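Final report, results section. Input specification for complex C-07:
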Amino acid sequence: MLKYSLRRLASAIPTLFLLITVAFFLIRIAPGGPFDGERALPAEIEANLAAKYHLDEPLVFQYARYLWQIARLDFGPSFHYRDWSVNELILQGAPVSFTLGILALAIALIAGVLIGAWAALRQNRPGDYAVMSFAMIGISIPNFVMAPLLILLFAITLGWLPAGGWDYSPTRMILPVVTLALPMIAYIARITRGSMIEVLHSSYIRTVRAKGMPEKEVILRHALKPALLPVISYLGPAAAAIMTGSVVVERIFTIPGIGTYFVQGALNRDYTLVMGVVILYGMLIILFNFLVDLLYAWLDPRIRYDDGEAEA
Amino acid sequence: MNESTRDAFDQALDTREIRGRSLYIDAWHRLLKNKAAVAGLVVLVVMVLLVIVGPMLSQWDHEIPDWDHSSTPPSLETGHLFGTDAIGRDLFVRTMIGGQISLLVGLLATLVSLIIGVSYGAVAGYLGGRVDNVMMRIVDAVYAMPFMFLVILLMVVFGRNIFLIFLAIGAINWLDMARIVRGQTLSLKNKDFVEAARACGATEAQIIRRHIVPNLLGVVIVYVTLTIPQVILVESFLSFLGLGVQEPLTSWGALVNEGTQELETAPWSLMFPAGFLAVTLFAFNFLGDGLRDALDPKDRL
Amino acid sequence: MKRVPVVVVLAALLAACGAPEPDDDAPRSPRLPVPVEVAFDDEGRPVPDVLAEEQVLYRGNGEEPQTLDPHLAEGVPTANILRDLFEGLATTAPDGRIVPGAAIHWDVSRDGLTYTFYLDPDAHWSNGEPVTAHDFVWSWRRVVDPETGAGYGRMLAPVVNAQQIFSGELSPDELGVSALSDTTFQVRLEDPTPYFLGLLTHPTTYPVYRAALEEHGSAHVRPGNLVSNGAYRLTDWQVRSRIELEMNPYFRDAGNVIIERVVFYPFEDENTEFNRFRAGDLHWTYQVPSGQFSWLKQNMDEALKISPWFGTYFFSFNLTREPFEDNLPLRQALNLAIDREIITERVTRFGEMPTFNLVPPGLPDYQPPAPEYADWTQSEREEEARRLYRQAGYSESQPLTVELRYNTSENHRKIAIAIAAMWRQVLGVQTRLINEEFRVFLQNRAQRRVTQAFRAGWIGDYMDAFTFLELYHSGHGRNDAGYNNPRFDRLLDRIASERIPARRRNLMVEAERMLLEDQVVLPVFIYMTRRLVDPRLQGWEENIMDYHLTRYMYLVKSQDEEDVQGGENEE
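Structure output:
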């Protein structure tokens, strides 16, 4: 087990390195620079700014400098938010995004599995269609439509909830969390439904049923656990994505998370900031995929990692 | 229980016909039993016809504003069945044109990702060993990169040719496909019929093309129906960021985004495009799920 | 069990998007509070009775500041905060007039080249230290030092040696500023610059606190570190969430400041800000969603404040490339074919003023010269446009194909579509609309390699027509049209050195006329500032620079005092 973990950790390093390299050069391809504005800068000042941030050096040097910098866990100064370092910006924004993400994840997991399992037991019957239709709302209506509708209804018309803003108070979290959770509910419900149907058709469940076990017990004790395996593998990348924030939700609800930095960082050519969040995302993906594999082993006794032969 | 007996019966049917060419016919029959999937299929066919024929039937142009009727609600009198947008362009025509673009873009990007994903996955899975390892490591690295970051960079770099962009989106959206296909191929390649082909002296390329790929058809069909709606959503997200299709062309995403700006003052400008978008996505998703139930590859193998 | 709420939510959602009845009697948003009648004391201050208990202003403020360092800052939202935090030698009154700030008064030498400022002895930093002439000397040298990288350093260009310091030929110490005593600050200018006092209200000319900067470096603007000399000081800064200021007790006029705390909220989306205002979270918005005019007129008329701004929305041509290079009739035709009234009434819809001029009206000493076609009817203009179009060598069968470029924004999009449609309807021009992401757009515009016609626009940096005219100097960094007219350049040079106001004015009129005759730009309308303001917030006035200092404002009680307690959303 430990051996396997260490091996996975070691294999993450080249992946991360590849990711950093690709992202570093990709962002530099985009035309325009971080200091362009409506008011053109005098050439000397532009040159000075470039020198200050080492943008005047050959790209390969900048790359080497950057690698050395992040090796010391320093993501550098933000080019756009000039009073802050990338570390500070991420440390301010990440807890916000993590909080929203984890809440949304929890809600989506509970609702999604319930809906999916419930639908699977009524495959192709009205109940199935009804709950699956509800689940599909999240992936049939774009979230930038859903969010204003929710605000209009719950904040403006009914006045029950705040229209946005952020201060870690539960009422301000409800609408953003719901907006974030809706599409995930759809995906989880659908995965659960699919795998549940499959499990229910398996010879294993047929055997259990043939033994005369009550249906409730069949489902809860024998069917649900294997049916959850595909959900778990979906959750890895999904958790990384949702915990790194959503530009839509952050913009519409004015939430200071880090999701916006993926987009605004790229649009502002804030090279260091965008690299910072991309690396964070990459690390989360790798971490969660690792956790998923561990969870898999725990849930499914057929999979063992002790012998070092990983099969997923 | 009635339900389980029926399911068991279905299962029995599967086993009986597992080898026959009637596999897909059988799947088709199963699909027809799924009312939601059938409804989805019908809706999609109607939708495609509508967005193609619709603009031809209208007296309005999608580009030229009707200056006297900007932001007017749907009305038979003015001839604007879905009302007009903020500048006075007919929303019926624009919704249809938007549908053409959205569907085309979804299809295009999905096809590109399909081609790359299937070939990449099939090659990796078939060759296996070290090559497979390296190829999958690359997939891991790209996978660890936020999709939206890549898409936005592509938008910025490639300028604004929507088709180029969706070729590009397809080109980075193939990872799931590659993984699925690789997994399938890994399990397929040791099957008897592949062994047999190899014994007959077929080349590796021939085996991949003749035996592996066709057997992946089920997965691919499901994948396509479920990826198109995702791509349409990605396009709408880009429109939200203002990075979508160039005017005077439009897409459902762009129209919906304009609509949300005037949610209260001109609700029709949101309702019609959002309705079309949602119905289409619903249809694709139900069809996709139905196909997956009907074609479940694990049942067959 | 699960089904009931689902159905309810669905029904409610459908109701929300399906049935907007603006005429419905039921209030759809919280009723705007009605302020009590305000009485003033002998000194013109509102009497304490009418003031609300809680003097905390919640202000929506556009995008998150890039920096709060006044010398590096750019953009209107940041300037709004800096005007509360800092104070220049001069400042503005509620109506925008220039009034003494950190300097209590000043002398101008006869030749207009030397300004001597006498600092207010009461002027203090937020840590209680006095503001001295040395602070200004040090700060201004910092601005012109190329090492600093001040984006707006150009503002100090009129000062002796500034240009040479920018380009590294002279050291910052050579700047033409000196401290004659602790409270006397002298500035020497290269040319008489009539708008010089106006520059002193700009953040670039504000003093910064040397000791804080030397101690904290680039972190000197953090809460706790930032020492400022304005009416407020920084107490909290949560990136992309809120910036909070409190009254600066050491401010020279602290006795007259009523608002105790100001909270600035950044917004990336105008609809979000609008929703927050409707929910009662804000007293003041930075802008108003462009599509909402009729709704606002109907539902929030008392809160909707629209006034002319010192900015012009225009398009421009790349004069160095086909098809606009050396083709004056074509540019004229495209200009005349646009019906500006339709654009302002049907597209932008916020009462923008159609214009044919580059310089906006409203300057006390400058009257933009109206071209003769300004008085024609639109059909006359279109007639002439068609004639010029043919003269330029185009026709029905040989139409012009042109690219019209704009950067991503709802408003730019709508206007560009309207213009393309007008060109097509009047002249038969085939327009290809190209929407670009902001930085790509700026770069393309500046490089002049791929552009043809493009969106432009300018908000004046200081109250003088020169801020618009100088854009088209052949050497100006933002001359994206590539206009290169030696006569025009000479005219600008003469304006810069002219000492007699009337003559200077005539030269500027001549310069603007030259730009219009050469059809370098295609003006469309004058920008309007538009915002929602809680009727209880008073003490501010509309002005064309759109400067609104919190220190003049105050919140009054509403007639329904309960409303104040319940409606305010304290965070």
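The radius of gyration of chain A is 24 Å. Chain A touches chain C through 56 residues (CB under 8 Å). This concludes the modelling results for the funded period.
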